[in-house]
Write a structure and sequence with these properties.
112 residues; two-stranded antiparallel ribbon; binds zinc ion
Length: 112
């Protein structure tokens, strides 16, 4: 895996926790961006939506985005996603999450 240290621009191959040049913690770096992932608009069942959420979070944590906006709809998936996120937050896999008052159908998950 090839990545760039966002602090000093050093190109790093392999998986390292800290940049060999500036010692910045690579797994905490983010570029401030938010990606939006729709996990509930293709007729997914709850279990499918939760699996999709988990794989998107796993993937995003390896990258440099700061947050994921999960589009969850307003039904059962939303309730289950909030429960699952509470669990992930407890285990330290996400930093925090917030149901957006402007859009009840989505949840903003802060990863870093
Ligand atoms: Zn660096």
């Amino acid at each position: 895996m090839q990545q760039i240290c966002l602090e000093c621009g050093m190109s790093i191959s392999g998986t390292m926790r800290n940049c060999p040049k500036c010692d910045n913690a690579l797994n905490l770096q983010h570029d401030g961006s938010t990606i939006t992932v729709d996990i509930a608009h293709h007729g997914e069942r709850v279990s499918e939506a939760l699996r999709k959420m988990q794989s998107e979070i796993d993937l995003a944590r390896k990258g440099v985005v700061m947050s994921i906006r999960l589009v969850v709809g307003s039904g059962l998936i939303r309730d289950e996603v909030l429960l699952a996120l509470r669990d992930l937050q407890f285990r330290g896999e996400v930093k925090d999450f917030d149901t957006e008052s402007s859009n009840r159908g989505s949840v903003l998950v802060r990863l870093k």
